[in-house]
Design brief:
The complex is a heterodimer of chains A (262) and B (363). Chain A is built from 11 helices and no strands. By secondary structure, chain A is an all-alpha fold. By secondary structure, chain B is of the alpha+beta class. In chain B, the strands form 4 sheets. A 6-stranded mixed beta sheet of chain B has the order 6-7-8-3-9-10, with helices on both faces. In chain B, strand 1 and strand 2 form a beta hairpin. Classes of the chains: A mainly alpha (262), B alpha+beta (363).
């Protein structure tokens, strides 16, 4: 029984990790097209990636879009979360539903909707168009993350700040924000990664000048199967791993630092 | 009483527009007074505190501090220091940073603020822990920081919301004395909320007993203990025997208790013979009857609990349940199933309105 469980775990792990074991070696391959196992090794495709504007421009586009999406998402979700978590009002259930809707609707459906809608308002293939669409997609996760944090937040802290003479605005700035910042950071990170990774909607609504990295990868694999894709995939994997692992390590370290002294 | 400093006038609060969490509370407090709000949960004591702090809006009534109405002043402009049950220290600031907070909000110059905050930390005995974060401190230390933070800006009032509830017994008693000392040395008018009657007895100049959103009684600890206005207050503060009594001769002070017989009570001029009442007998007011004692009763002892310095006897006198607390030495020979004769001084008994059968007092 125990052996069977260990075996099952190993199989799942292998299933999850195998693509990595294929993609990472391929990025160091000498082959002219995607090929496994690699016939030889070099780092030439890394040089090609960083030296080719056809790759660096979509990368910068994606980074810029993701950053804007992170900021816009947090700016929009923050008041919504405070309203839903802290107040009772007519139509609260409906608001909750609306905020979670992008999670339930298939991306392809959203993509078609955005395609038609953004064309109508002249935002198709523009940065604002993509940012708006990605923000809408990021809202549910950011809302979930932030509301979980806010529910665990002790309102007594805010009452204490008010009683000590801080106006509501200064209470937010000096108490709520500093105490809740990991929640805001996590919400922003989720929004950033969501946008950076998003492919389906980007395929429909991004254009030649506003091409995102996932879209470029998709186009590339359809036309040339350029091994640079493996390079990008490898870089993406490590970038996301760092983004996810660093906060975990940092929290563990700070928790050890803040252990109560006797 | 001297000129009132804090005044509550007809204060009422309803959360749903129908039921009243607070129903017409009138109270005054003198400058420097230490007042305890005592009552079970849902009695209105915490609601009253929240209204004074400004975290909840009054449905009716007025709150005045030093003659000025503050009922519609937002909480951050009231200048009232509050210590919360869970401390509510800012986790991202050190002890000193927490105590500095109200001074920063008042734009006190930095050096002056540091000096003042350090002096306040010294007053609560924490000057050596100024650089620690709340989670590096014990519960008692955190509570002291919270107290220093609530006092450092010379608040108009100090509100303490069950501040000792989360601490263990020894620490609680130590902090009770500490809080009293600091409160007296600063002379700040203080309202302390608790459901712990011994805490209320130990700390207060005056106790206000709440029930069902109304004040049942306000008075000094001994007034509340010796002369409760009704059976609720009598039961809530201290241990009690509540004996139903029929007044047979009010002017002479004679009544009758079923199963015990005629007893002497304090004279009740103005009341009619045949009226029902409740006699409050504190268990420690009962003693073994001596020669020729008046007000005696035979008690069938069922249980004896020895505490060393005293012993609690639980049993019956006739049909009436009775509790007596005797000095430890006196009680040493008494065992369960014994019958003993007890007596009490008529002056130590207190008459209250009769308790109706459903448990509510008749008034």
């Amino acid at each position: 029984m125990r052996l069977a469980l260990i075996l099952l775990g190993a199989v799942v792990l292998a299933f999850v990790a195998t693509p990595l074991l294929i993609v990472v070696p391929m990025s160091f391959s000498t082959a002219v097209s995607l090929e496994f196992p690699p016939p030889g090794w070099w780092t030439g495709y890394y040089a090609a990636y960083f030296g080719d504007a056809r790759w660096t421009k979509p990368t910068l586009n994606s980074l810029g879009i993701a950053a804007a999406v992170a900021v816009l998402t947090v700016a929009l979700v923050t008041p919504a979360t405070f309203a839903v978590v802290r107040h009772r009002f007519v139509g609260k259930g409906l608001v909750n539903l609306a905020l979670m809707l992008p999670l339930a609707v298939p991306h392809i459906v959203m993509a078609i909707g955005y395609y038609a809608f953004l064309a109508d308002i002249q935002l198709l293939q523009t940065f604002p168009g993509i940012i708006l669409a990605h923000t809408a997609l990021s809202v549910p996760m950011a809302f979930l993350v932030l509301s979980a944090n806010l529910k665990g937040f002790d309102r007594g802290l805010e009452r204490a700040a008010l009683s000590l003479g801080a106006s509501p605005a200064r209470t937010f700035l000096h108490v709520t924000l500093p105490v809740l910042w990991p929640g805001f950071a996590a919400a922003a990170l989720f929004a950033f990664v969501q946008s950076f990774d998003e492919t389906v909607v980007a395929l429909f609504i991004s254009g030649r000048d506003t091409e995102t990295l996932p879209r470029k990868m998709f186009d590339s694999i359809r036309t040339t199967a350029d091994p640079v894709i493996a390079v990008v995939s490898t870089l993406l994997f490590f970038a996301v791993a760092v983004l996810v692992i660093v906060p975990v390590l940092w929290r563990a370290a700070s928790r050890r630092r803040l252990e109560p002294r006797p | 009483m001297t000129k009132p400093y804090l005044e509550l006038q007809g204060l009422s609060k309803s959360y749903d527009g129908r039921t009243r969490a607070l129903d017409g509370v009138d109270l005054t407090a003198a400058k420097g007074e230490f007042i305890t709000f005592l009552g079970p949960s849902g009695s209105g004591k915490t609601t009253t505190l929240m209204l004074i702090a400004g975290f909840e809006a009054a449905s009716a009534g007025e709150i005045l501090v030093d003659g000025a109405p503050i009922t519609h002043v937002p909480p951050h402009k009231r200048g009232i220091g509050i210590v919360f049950q869970n401390y509510a220290l800012f986790p991202h600031r050190t002890a000193l940073g927490n105590v500095m907070f109200p001074l920063e909000m008042r734009k006190v110059p930095k050096t002056q603020a540091v000096e003042k905050a350090r002096a306040m930390l010294a007053l609560v005995g924490l000057e050596r822990l100024a650089e620690r974060h709340p989670r590096e401190m014990s519960g008692g230390q955190q509570q002291r920081v919270a107290l220093a933070r609530a006092l450092v800006f010379d608040p108009a009032l100090l509100l303490l919301d069950e501040p000792l509830g989360a601490l263990d017994k020894n620490l609680r008693e130590q902090l009770q004395i500490e809080i009293k000392r600091i409160q007296r040395s600063l002379g700040v008018t203080t309202i302390f909320v608790t459901h712990d009657q011994s805490e209320a007895m130990a700390m207060s100049d005056r106790i206000v007993v709440f029930k069902g959103g109304r004040i049942q009684q306000a008075g000094t600890p001994l007034e509340i203990y010796n002369r409760p206005v009704n059976d609720f207050v009598a039961r809530f503060v201290g241990d009690s025997n509540l004996l139903p009594l029929l007044l047979t001769d009010p002017t002479a002070g004679i009544g009758e208790i079923a199963g015990i017989g005629p007893v002497r009570v304090p004279a009740q001029p103005g009341r009619k013979a045949g009226e029902a009442a409740t006699l409050l007998l504190r268990p420690e007011g009962l003693g073994l009857a001596g020669e020729g004692a008046i007000n005696t009763c035979r008690m069938q002892v069922e249980t004896v609990v020895h505490y060393g310095d005293s012993a609690l006897l639980v049993g019956h006198a006739g049909q009436t349940a009775l509790r007596a607390r005797l000095p430890g030495l006196v009680a040493q020979g008494i065992t369960s199933n014994m019958e003993i004769v007890l007596s009490w001084n008529p002056a130590s008994a207190h008459l209250m309105p009769a308790v109706m059968r459903d448990g509510f007092q008749n008034s």
